Amino acid sequence: MSSENEIANLLHESRRFPPSAEFSKQAVAQPELYEKAKSDRLAFWAAQANNLHWHKPFTKTLDWSEAPFAKWFEDGELNVSYNCLDRHVESGAGDRVALFFEGEPGDTKAFTYKELLQEVKKAANVLANLGIQSGDRVAIYMPLIPEAIIAMHAVVRLGAVHSVVFGGFSADSLAARIQDAGAKLVITADGGFRKGKASALKPAVDSALSDEKCPSVEHVLVVKRCGNEIDWDDNRDLWWHEQLDSASSEHQSQGFNAEHPLFILYTSGTTGKPKGILHTTGGYLTQAAYTHKNVFDLHETKDVYWCTADIGWITGHSYVAYGPMANGATQVIYEGTPDTPDWGRWWSIIEKYKVSIFYTAPTAIRSFMKLGREMINKFDLSSLRLLGSVGEPINPEAWMWYREVIGSGTTPIVDTWWQTETGAIMISPLPGVTAAKPGSAMLPLPGVSMEVVDDEGNAVGNGHGGLLTITEPWPSMLRGIWGDPERFKETYWSRFPGRYFAGDGAKLDEDGDLWLLGRVDDVMNVSGHRLSTTEIESALVSHPYVAEAAVVGAKDETTGQAVVAFVILRASQVSQTGDEEKVSKELRDHVAKEIGPIAKPRTIFVVAELPKTRSGKIMRRLLRDVAEDRPVGDVTTLADTTVMDTISSRVASGASD
Ligand code: PRX
User: Fold this and answer.
1) Is 193 in contact with 105 (CB distance < 8 Å)?
2) If you measure from the C-alpha of residue 418 to the centroid of ligand 1, how many angstroms do you get, rounded to a whole number?
3) How confident is the model at residue 650 (pLDDT cuts 50, 70, 90)?
């Protein structure tokens, strides 16, 4: 969490950026939306749901009698793929571009809604031929290419459940997720292009499935993207293009119950084991579509929308694969990194496709701020009319820079707060309504009820800080943790009975606007990606050098937080380890192998002891002080109060990587 001083400074923010009269006039979301939702919340959500196509209409909006397991629109039936594709083709929008794909090497491809539907139908037939049925789980481990989105839609079209695993995760992480979900099929690619080279993916799948580690998997479908050399198992592996070429493009979608499972997405929690967050069909699509339309002010026949998130994260689900397509939007997807071939790549894409709505993360914005505006000024960004931010708090400087340099000083910015668990945006300005304050996510959206509370669960009121809770069920809420209903109740619903605890700190300013202050638990947020301190600690102690490890998220100018590890080496290993630089490199590589490169500690400190309370709990707060280079706080509850002196002097003497 931010320090008290920073919070106080934030709350003195006096700048206000109301939308222009012109923007407000044309805006999708008008001020009445708040009143409508307030006067009858459930009727409001039912009206949003009715913007979708229902194979069988629902008559009940919410059943909360088995809280915290919600049922939304439970007697209705719908098909997500039908809503995102067939519906637009049938209403005459089949020739509208659904996807502009920009490959990293510069190859491009556009799909109209009609073309995309045809591919999805073929892919659905391929999956059905491979025995995939409603309720089966399919793991997707792919680069951001059109086939990834086609695969997701083909899976849900059949009522099967996807588990997309970010391509940057290791073979071990992939195996753990395949096993937990019991996936029958893995869809992958030979590789994807990253930083100018083919980055192989298939070898990680081979390794995840080796030695009978994942017996549930029957087949692996492989998209040929890079043409890199890969191993092949004739009994298991199938080329995507060969299968699709011979598949029929006729496929009638059927309706599934609104509470039918839609997807699982694993995310880090406070323990070492990632949680499989479960979303279901009707409520999820309702809120993904509603928020995408209203928060991004989507005018589907005019706008070109681009969200830079990968499909491996929830943002790539709700605001690439589903929300925009449910609304018939035209969107851009880009396979590669922002610095390839140079840091002008994103801006060249905006210029080329005339992107009008752009959604990215503060960490990216801060990286560009550091580089200066020279590169950006070479491009024509005048098509942009709305900017969005997600994943972590956006500091006022970055907010201002985003608006001035990218948004030509005129575009509204929507700072959107939400989580894998919430499924869709929960807090955000409405772009045509709200006079935004730089750094504040402002208010819960119409239909969403929240409260900032103290440790006892009492509302703190304006001008005070506390813990963010959600007081009423919402349609796109998670329905559970895959295979672990107890953990679901315990993690989110036990701290404040009857309400959802988000794990974030927040403050209400004097106007009642919300300022998000980061996680209050052992979850870190590095470049907008969630990582668990415990998960990285277990990866570190699984290395033979390490006796004990403690990991903290330390403030970082670019990535928001950075992973900093304190390790105690095993005495028996110390003599063989050589210098600390080598140890540090080896341990960082080990974490990358165990979890994935995103979890690599930025810094590793080798220490003799860790600060622990008398009951043996590591006091991460004190380690964070050291990692952030500030005076160490209160040490009186430590079992041995001298430990921090030893650590601080060791760190100061340069014992780092
Ligand atoms: O701490 C909050 C932060 O990201 C966490 C959720 O991470 P994840 O499930 O990976 O989803 C990220 C994309 C939705 C939250 O608990 N967070 C997300 N958006 C914001 C944010 N913190 C501040 N401001 C935001 N706009």
Assistant:
1) yes
2) 5
3) confident
